[in-house]
Amino acid sequence: MSWFKRIKEGITTSTKEKKETPEGLWYKCPSCKKISPTNEHAQNKYVCLNEECHYHEKIGSAEYFEILFDNNEFIELNDNLTAGDPLEFVDTKKYTDRLVDTAKKTNLKDALRTGHGKVEGEDLVIACMDFSFIGGSMGSVVGEKIARACDYCIENRIPLMIISKSGGARMMEAAFSLMQMAKTAAKLSLMSEAKVPYISFLTDPTTGGVTASYAMLGDLNIAEPQALIGFAGPRVVKETIGKDLPKGFQTSEFVLEHGFLDKIINRKELKAKLAQLLRMFKN
Amino acid sequence: MNYLEFEKPIEELQTQLEKIQEAAAKSGMDVSKITSEMEEKIKEARTKIYGNLTPWQRVQVSRHPDRPYTLAYIDYITEGTFMELHGDRTVKDDKAMVGGFGSIDGKTVMFIGQQKGINTKMRQIRNFGMPNPEGYRKALRLMKLAEKFNKPIVTLIDTPGAFPGLEAEERGQGEAIARNLLEMSQLKVPVICIVIGEGASGGALGIGIGDKVLMLENTWYSVISPESCSSILWRNWNNKERAAEALKLTPNDMLGNKLIDGIVPEPIGGAHTNHEETFKIVKDVILKNLAQLEKLDPKKRVAQRIDKFCAMGVVNEEEL
Question: What's the domain range around B14?
Answer without folding.
Answer: 5-52
